[in-house]
Here is the input.
Amino acid sequence: MSTETDIIKWLSTQRESMIQVLREMVDTDGGSYDKEGVDKVGAQVARFMEAQGIPVEVLPQQKHGDCIRATLEGGDATRGGNARENILLMGHRDTVFPKGEPTRRPFTIEGDRAFGPGVADMKAGLVMNMFVLAAFKKFGGAPGPLVALFTGDEEIGSPEGRPVIEAEAKAARVVFNSEPGRPNGGIVTGRKGGVFSVFDIEGKAAHSGGNFEAGISAIGELAAKITAIHALTDLKRGITLNVGLVTGGQSVNTVAPHAQGQIDLRYVEPADREEVMAKIHAIIDKSYVPGTRAKLTIKGEFLPLTQSPEAAKLFATYRAAAAESGFDPSGEFSGGCADSGFTAAMGAPTLCAVGPVGGKAHTPEEYLELGSLVPRAQAVARAILKLGPG
Here is the structure.
């Protein structure tokens, strides 16, 4: 039999093994700020890889989950001279859920769907990548070195993982990011960029009954700034501004001495970022309520995923591989952000959401279509084989 036949046949027998690995991952805490939990999931990845004889490297991170890097040699090692030869499979181990969530609602199966925190976003994608590497380890045939990167802080903008991802992207020939496939089976070929920032406002406290005129309301300033920031939304250009969290004040009978708002900016075109951020800075610097002062701090950021001609060719390759695996995915644009924007910005042709199909991410109703585990793994494996020599 050919190498491709061997790989596809072996993957077709691995559904129950995939589910077993996935169950352990989902039942392990892994919120972005729970370094211990995210690292436990990383240890599960490392144990699996080591059992397959695949080298694993742990890249320590201070605040968030360590990065796990698994590598598998492939292609013609004597060629040399090509700075971009790696085939990068990528995914994040962290979830958005609070500590204890797996205890409250552990991994369960109902019919052909699995449920649990992070089951689709994106622990199933991690499992898929692990088994794809295992298949190439068993049967060979990779047209270049395979690298699987498992990061730990994507859900909060990859503050520590981004430099690691960008370094890998510089050496990547192509990138497959295994975020969950869309509910209709599609993958993502374009995403918005995002900037997540916080603005803090200082006012002056005063008794709201006995000394009202001596106070300077930070909440009043917050309200004016929110109105101005929201007015920057331009739906035709795909630009949205949302102040999604606010805090402030001292007591109901005190003029508010402080307030805070958190901003979510989403945009499509890279040039739009600088334009809108300049307008946000102008709003923050302006005092609508005389005497207030404000400061803006960027807490996290994603770059947009844009489809280059090379990425379009990669999508065509993947779509052909998917057809042989029994499905026909569309290429979709998503308003959500992901680490795939970082790799695309580094010039690496990138596809996103090639992982198993799921939906309702970030909610208690999050689900995974178990029937997609094997076909999506087979599609990635076939796409890798179709790349040919670099």
Summary: The radius of gyration is 23 Å. Residues 131 and 383 are 15 Å apart (CA to CA).
